[in-house]
Automatic annotation (TrEMBL):
Protein name per its UniProtKB record: DUF4872 domain-containing protein
Source organism (scientific name): Mucilaginibacter gilvus
InterPro entries: BtrH_N (IPR026935), DUF4872 (IPR032369)
Residue span, DUF4872 domain: 156-330
Highest taxon of source: Bacteria
Domain Butirosin biosynthesis protein H N-terminal: 12-144
Amino acid sequence: MELSFEHLQSAHCENGVTRSLLNNIGVSQITEPLAFGIGSGLFFVYIPLLKINNGPVIAFRVMPGLIFKRTCKALGIEIVRKKFSSKEKAKVFLDECLADGHPVGCQVGVYYLSYFPKEYRFHFNAHNLIVYGHNEDQYLISDPIMENTTILSDYELERVRFAKGTLAPNGQIYYPKIAEVVTDEQIRKGIITGIKKTANDMLSPMPILGVNGIRYTGNRIKKWRDSLGEKKSGLYLAQLVRMQEEIGTGGGGFRYIYAAFLQEAHAYNPVDELLEISKAFTQSGDLWRTAAVQAAGIFKGRIGTQHDFNVMGDYLLEIAEIERRAFVALSKINWKG
């Protein structure tokens, strides 16, 4: 059984799943940047006491499923979203969804994704993909970050849907119900709500969240060489880069997507500040990429003096200030209508 479904490649998994699932029910206006912005996907948190792959948790995005949930809510689209404790019940529900004609989004761990290159497989449980069919003992998979569709066996899909560890998926499955016509006014209001939510999150007074969290991380990095030693501090920086620019997309990639979102938002809300603030996120994205190169140089052993760690930390301090000013400006926009 193969449902009629168009595979759309995207930069980030949940943005892409959201866009594709909405496109499948006829909501074709939602681009990847619009899904990311309306769904308030941009976030930052540094949790040193919680570990993934022996490094501190550094998250650049909201919890899995929230981009989809928030975007659909803004557009007035009802959703189905479930988690399971039983693998058997999770499979039965998945098969029922497909039999009823619903391609579904699934949260999975990437470590056992057989079609992923080995260098990208590690214990990260916040990936999202779409299941759009089932033939004998194989499921048909549309993974938005891949160029083409692929397949997973029954066992392989079960294994990644019930991966263990931090942010365990617990079989999470979701899809939108049939939508009414989505209007430009709904999208316009959704954009405003999404911007306000993201600005509020990123300007949080909590020291480990938002721009404060970026600043806090930058200051911590300057101390890592002395407090952790060269080997462990290098591994921490490798973790940062992995979440930032590889599997996580969240550093430069998210800033470029958010810049594109603000440009697209201008078409629905012709507020000139949006275009100017968009440039700040492009600048921030460039700095995140530069910081990633610096971090890679340290953990690969090409550089590694205290000065190199200071430079790395200063990049994040500069990013934090650019983004603070940008989100303050967004929070002060006088929306028309």
